[in-house]
Every structure is written in C-alpha cells, then in structure tokens.
C-alpha cells in the first residue's frame, strides 16, 4: 500500500496554520516571507523576465530570488515559462491563486506604507521612554 495520501484523504485534511506539522505553515512562509511577498506583488503587474524582476525587487540576490520563485512555482502561485530560444528566454507570471494572493498582499503593503509616519512616531516615543528608564 502506498504511503501517499489518497485524493479522498487529501480532501478531508483540515489546514490549521497554528499546528506545528501543518503544511499551511510552509505555504504561508513562502507567500509572506520578505522576498515572496515582493515577488508576488511585482508579478501582479504582468509577466516578467528574471532579471527585470530582480531589478524590481531591489536588494534580493539572484540565488534568493531563484529559490523564492521555485518555491512559489511549486506551491502553484507562479508560472514559469521557458521559451526555446538562444539564449533561453524565461518569463514568470502569476497563476490565478498567485493573483489572488498578490491582491491580498498589495492591500497589506498599502496599509503598511500608509502607516509609516505613525509607526515612526511610535518608535520615537518608545525609544525615548526606554532611554529614560
């Protein structure tokens, strides 16, 4: 008998991100990690070649971006299309699930960016209070 989970059993599994062994934690990590979030939102603008994406996601190394895209592709959020040209032309785009995730992440990014002045003020108050202790 195969140790693989049958389709029926798979449908009956309940995801619980708070459970240590739940695979949803890994998926969440891939999506919400610094590079995963930025790559997904950057790809929401349309298909992009690797080097253009690397320029857009300022600060990511080639190795880290490649690993991030591979994880997101494996999870079904990113589609990689290699065209048989010389040199090979590879484009990355979002799948329907990737577009959905990118939309939610874009909302979070917009929220974070709108709170930068408020957070800066809170940090200043916090640092001043700590300095007085």
From TrEMBL:
PROSITE patterns: HTH_HXLR. InterPro entries: HTH_HxlR, WH-like_DNA-bd_sf, WH_DNA-bd_sf. Signal peptide: none annotated. SUPFAM superfamilies: Winged helix' DNA-binding domain. GO terms for molecular function: DNA binding. Residues 22-120 form the HTH hxlR-type domain. Keywords: DNA-binding, Transcription, Transcription regulation. It comes from the Bacteria. PANTHER family: HTH-TYPE TRANSCRIPTIONAL REGULATOR YODB (PTHR33204:SF37), TRANSCRIPTIONAL REGULATOR, MARR FAMILY (PTHR33204). This is HxlR family transcriptional regulator. The lineage of its organism: Bacteria, Bacillati, Actinomycetota, Actinomycetes, Pseudonocardiales.
